[in-house]
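Figure 2 data, in text form.
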Amino acid sequence: LNNFTSDLNSVIYNILSTPSCPPFPPSEWLNIVHWKYVNLAKVLESAHTMELDPKQTHVIDDEVELALRVSKSSGIIKSSSDHNIMFTMYIEAIAFVFSQRSSEFTPYNSYLSKLFHAVEVRLHSHIIKFNWSVRNQM
């Protein structure tokens, strides 16, 4: 960690330029390096989009009108599937930077998966909030 605090820009640059670097938002890499809370909603948002925005139109030269449907970001973790995908990405990012710490997260991820499986779908939001609280205290 002492090496990380000396020049954060070069640390992030080195992480992002490493060929085996897992996909992860640059702002959240900074949180990992600082060992701060990582916002999984931002990870979800950067990973993929879930919905389409309504059609957007653009008029060009009063004669041509373009009508487009563009992807809309959905950075809210709504399901156990969203959570599992993002938490796995989080563990991969942690393991990439702090390989010695990854063994702590794998059993915890298994624990969360079992919780999701054990409760009704309508209660999954409570598990997501529980995980947020636990990670916020680390």
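Caption note: The chain is about 60% helix and 10% strand.
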